Amino acid sequence: MHWIDWMIVCIPLIVVLGIGLKSQKYIKGVSDFLTAGRVAGRYVVCVANGEAGMGLISLVAMYEAMYHSGFAYGFWNSIAAPIGIVMGLTGYCTYRFRETRAMTMGQFLEIRYNRPFRIVAAFLQSISGILNYSLFPAVGARFLVYFCDLPLQVNICGMIFPTFGLVMALLLGLAVWVVCMGGQITIMVTDCVQGLLSYPMYAILVGYIIWHFSWFHDLAPILLDRPVGKSMLNPFDISNLRDFNLFFVAVGIFGGIIGRMSWSGTQGYNAAAKDAHEQKMGGILGTWRAGFSSMMFILLAVVAYTFLNSPAFVTGDVGSAACRNALAQKAFDDVASDSTFDPIREEYRHYLATGKITPALQNSLNSVREPSNNTSASVTEKPVDKEPMLTIGRDAIRSVSPQKAQVFGTIFGQMRVPMALKYILPIGMVGVFCALGIFLMISTDTTYLHSWGSILVQDIILPLRGKPFTPIQQIRLLRIMIASVAAFAFCFSMFFGQVDYILMFFAITGAIWTGGAGIVIVGGLYWKRGTTAGAFCALLIGSGIATCGAICQSIWAGTIYPMLGRNGWLEGFTRVVEMASHPLEPYILWRVVPTKFPINSQEIALASMLLSIAIYVVVSLLSRHEVFNIERMLHRGKYQREGKKIEHGIKNVHDFFRKLIGINDEYTRGDKIITWSVFIWSFCWSFCGTFLGVIIWNAFSPWPMHWWVTWFFFNQIILSGVVAVVSTLWFSWGGTRDLIRMFRALDQKQVNVLDDGRVMDNVSADDIELVEKIDHIHIEDK
């Protein structure tokens, strides 16, 4: 990168870290470290949570999926619009969780079920979450190495170190420092500031793309050049998509309903607002928050796809051919760095430089290919795809290591769009996009490290210990566990070779917890007959299915498939598996091949959720002897402690409709305007207009492809651009205002040393002694 780009990266980063450093003085107790003192306003919650939720790995995963399957399948996500509206406007799960006053999900699970369940759940949650997170540093560091064109190795004092590891260690260390300074306070402050600084950066990149690329002349023609059943833009022509298709969308919608609060990667935000209403309004505002960021993500993906597939950009030193060759060489050297790959590495470099396959390289390819593909002509003159360098490189590595061949293909696919953007963007724009990438990586790292580290302390160590820690001891232990999670993630990322799509990796590792936890949480908040026995069974069944699926995927090529062949079971197994998927084809397509487990991660996740729901309901109905008092848990009715009494019942039809979209006595006039605007936009326009209206129209008169081009341009660029301009100004003002108010509230907040995440029916002698010893504590002074 140019020095101008490095300046654009460094200056905003220094500003963010400086503000974060100043904010640590507000840490006075455990609740500050865990939940930012529960004083945040709606705009801080909304802006900061949005920044934390959209990590750099999510951006890479989105580009990976878009390049593979396009944008059309996302149209069907609108099926969930009415459900999402009701969940957001009513505060489904989030409102009730905030009413419990629990700081962590584990604390709620102990209140609702019991302490042993809290410990078991936290154990599974930690395994799932830490494994899921451990890929984040790897993808983020590799993104920076490839996008910034850094060398794969550096020489420091005569010792050779992988650049990938050094970048990962630097950014993880930075994230650990931010978290340990002040916990959730510094996380929310830095995430909010990053979000506010990102708004103009998104706008700059969107403006550059729209100015330099014509939608109808440069971009749309390439998006239309797709096989039948794999359209980029037409949602009625996607029947041949695999992995990212209608089934993927349907499982995501179902998982979003049943697993509303099951994923605790951002659990520090779940209890950070000053009350349940502010928490709810922060979620509602999320509808308007994205603005230019969503436009930028989509437009950059479109531009990168066009650049890599359009004949107009093939030639030249900065053309797509040079980009693909550079990516292939870098990925090959990255994966095949051992001395055992030395012979084929040189042969592969020769192929990339000349386009000709040497006899030695051809012999390596012949050893892993079918006879029909063994000729040089079949590779050089009639490539099997548009990227022969990917096919040849993968087969060459497979001749030495089949597993590393899969890793090479995965890295090539993940870094394809970032590498293309490096060739597309000019000086200055490269720095802006790199700064955004670093912001996204740090914001997610800090949030996830805090979440998983605090779960280990709050939901395993603290309940097992029984005796309370002093605030100093507890925060010190939290910092130790946060650093330990970072250390594990570093080691995992250094040695784990990913062989599947990022979103599929998320699905299978997340299902270890969410497969059974979704119904446990939803049932615990809304169903008074849910029992501890039902919760235990549902959690263990869901986790067990996901774990078995993950194991089968990892050992399929090396163990299971060869075993089936040796024992003569392969033909019968193949027949049974393929017959099972036949009724649901083409959306579920199970095929027995030697390289990949026939059932993908999303399908395994769905099985775990469905079985856990059935188990929870059946066991709870069989084991319940008394009804749980949900009103007491939610501090409602006679159990309400303070504040204005909220009426939760329904008086008439008008009252029913008001409360259907979430309006109650807490709403001000401004709150009602925001809520109705979300309802009108999301339901009336996004669902009824741009979804149902389009479906009905196409049912009677299918649109020609050029109509879909125009529709995508209007909906995703023109209309989204108008919303983006308004939301950027709106949230920049609101986020700044609420950030200042948050600092004032933290400065005036009094310490409650008993507010440490434990569930206490009665205050013990140890607690009384702790209060007597500690009157007021400033953690940073210790």
Describe, in plain words, how this protein is organized in 3D.
This protein has 782 residues and is mainly α. It is built from 32 helices and two strands. It has helices at 3-23, 30-35, 42-53, 56-69, 81-90, 94-100, 105-112, 115-133, 136-147, 163-212, 215-224, 246-258, 267-270, 276-289, 292-309, 320-335, 342-354, 359-366, 376-380, 388-398, 402-424, 429-465, 471-495, 502-526, 532-566, 570-581, 601-623, 630-633, 653-660, 669-700, 705-748, 765-773; strands at residues 153-156, 159-162. Strands 1-2 form a two-stranded antiparallel ribbon. A hairpin with a 2-residue loop joins β1 and β2. α9 crosses α10 and α10 (163-212) packs across α22 (429-465). The protein is globular, with a radius of gyration of 27 Å. The model is unreliable at 372-384 and 770-782 (pLDDT under 50).
Strand tally is 2
Shape: globular
How far the N terminus sits from the C terminus, by CA atoms, comes to 42 Å
Low-confidence stretches: 372-384, 770-782
Q: What is the strand arrangement across the widest sheet?
A: 1-2
Q: Helicity level, as a percent range?
A: over 70%
Structural class: mainly alpha
Our count of helices gives 32
The largest β sheet comes out as: 2 strands, antiparallel
Backbone CA Rg? 27 Å
Round the mean pLDDT to the nearest integer and report it: 82
Instruction: Classify the beta-strand content into a percent band.
Output: under 5%
